[in-house]
Amino acid sequence: MANAAKRWWKYLGAKANTELDDRADPRVQLEQAMAEAQDQHRRLKEQAANVIANQRQAEIRLNRSMEEYERLTANARQALVMADQAARGGDGARSAEYTATAEAFANRLVAVEQEVEDTKSLVLQSAQAAEQAKAAVAQNATLLQKKLVERQKLLSQLDQAKMQEQMNRSVASLSATVGEDVPTFAEVRDKIEVRYARAKGMAELGEEAVPNRMLEVEQATMNAEAVARLDALREQMGLPMPQPPAR
Asked: Domain extents for the chain?
């Protein structure tokens, strides 16, 4: 029973995630992914900065130990010189004191020498870690830059997809009825074309009637003028006038 409930709960979760992915805005999801990538890069830089800081601290400790080592070496040498001078001057007690002081410096010198060697190893390790951290940051920065370029490409593709989807919906709406009482675009177009063709035909018929009558009148006028001109020429030439045809 518990396993069945667990499987059902997982199923509901997967279904909810699927519905969320279907309804989510890809632009918002893309921005979320980019924000997460940038946040990861920021955290990587912080970790790399800590590694580099450890290297710098190790180098500071090494420099300080080296300075301490040089100081102890100089003091031990000076104590030996002063012990030798006291022995030569016949002051055995003071010579013994300087010798003991030189031994104390030498004991401290041995400890500092070991500290220097340990710190050198630490500096070497931290330097390698710092180089690896720098390389990781540089590599991730390159990947992040590629993602930024790809982000612009994806946004452009998303805008093109939205525009194409809108065009598809527009084309579909032009070829489909909006409702029972609303004609399609094609039906309205056919009606308009029919009315236009009919009106154009009526106009052409009206235009043809008037010019035909005008041509007929003009032709009759020209014929009458021609007959009158011929009669005038016959009269000038003394020719007989033609007789009208018998009925």
From this structure: 2-174, 184-247
